[in-house]
């Protein structure tokens, strides 16, 4: 299976995907790593792994739609069959992403449907939640709103701050994302509008 990864930041989730493939746990080919930030660590990781990279600067497009249309055209041209958003920090245009629904997943650092958007760790702490976590979901036009596939949970301890929480969550994200991608490419997991199907049954 051919995978393109989109990332805006340091790329530790990308690193986890690459490590899973190295171990033989994830039978995929990474055909492209794309970013909206030329300085993203994810691009350096991809280069080191000999994966083609693409950096597109949103500021060189007239508007969001123009950027998204070019981005998705290039993703399609890469031959990717599946798209993984691994810390991609832009909202994507609904029309441009529609052809990819069911073939695009995102990892989000909250127990969705709680805390869509930014500052999820802070918001979980402010709400005095006892649990926090990460979710992998199918991407739809609704920001962080597509059907949830799988979640990883942890307990919030007294005295936790935003950074500690993010740090404890990250290794869980690094297991969750490759595991979900593995199920997707093996066809055990399938898109469904309401609840994803696992071995043909609603999750
Ligand atoms: C992760 O916490 C991910 O859930 C969020 O952004 C962060 C990306 O980290 N959407 P990295 O770039 O994969 O290290």
TrEMBL record:
Formyl transferase N-terminal domain segment(s): 2-181
Site positions (Raises pKa of active site His): 144
Keywords associated with the record: Purine biosynthesis, Transferase
SUPFAM superfamilies in the record: Formyltransferase
Pathways per UniProt: Purine metabolism; IMP biosynthesis via de novo pathway; N(2)-formyl-N(1)-(5-phospho-D-ribosyl)glycinamide from N(1)-(5-phospho-D-ribosyl)glycinamide (10-formyl THF route): step 1/1
Entry binding sites for N(1)-(5-phospho-beta-D-ribosyl)glycinamide: 11-13
One Pfam entry name: Formyl_trans_N
UniProt-annotated binding residues for (6R)-10-formyltetrahydrofolate: 64, 89-92, 106
Superkingdom of source: Bacteria
The keyword Transcription regulation appears for this protein: no
Enzyme Commission number(s) of this protein: 2.1.2.2
One term of GO molecular function: phosphoribosylglycinamide formyltransferase activity
Active site: 108
Role, per record: Catalyzes the transfer of a formyl group from 10-formyltetrahydrofolate to 5-phospho-ribosyl-glycinamide (GAR), producing 5-phospho-ribosyl-N-formylglycinamide (FGAR) and tetrahydrofolate.
UniProt-recorded name of the protein: Phosphoribosylglycinamide formyltransferase
Gene it is expressed from: purN
């Amino acid at each position: 299976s051919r995978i393109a990864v989109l990332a805006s930041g340091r790329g530790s989730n990308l690193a986890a995907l690459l490590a899973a493939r190295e171990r033989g746990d994830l039978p995929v080919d990474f055909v492209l790593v794309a970013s909206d930030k030329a300085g993203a660590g994810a691009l350096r990781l991809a280069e080191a792994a000999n994966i083609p990279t693409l950096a597109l600067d949103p500021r060189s497009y007239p508007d969001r739609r123009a950027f998204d249309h070019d981005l998705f055209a290039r993703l399609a041209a890469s031959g990717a069959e599946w798209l993984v958003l691994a810390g991609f920090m832009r909202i994507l245009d609904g029309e441009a992403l529609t052809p990819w629904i069911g073939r695009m997943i995102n990892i989000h650092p909250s127990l969705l449907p709680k805390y869509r958007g930014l500052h999820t760790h802070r918001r979980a702490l402010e709400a005095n939640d006892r649990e926090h976590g990460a979710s992998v979901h199918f991407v739809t036009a609704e920001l962080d709103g597509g059907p949830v596939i799988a979640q990883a949970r942890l307990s919030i301890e007294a005295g936790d701050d935003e950074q500690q929480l993010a740090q404890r969550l990250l290794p869980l994200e690094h297991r969750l994302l490759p595991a979900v991608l593995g199920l997707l490419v093996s066809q055990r997991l399938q898109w469904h509008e309401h609840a994803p199907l696992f071995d043909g049954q609603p999750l």
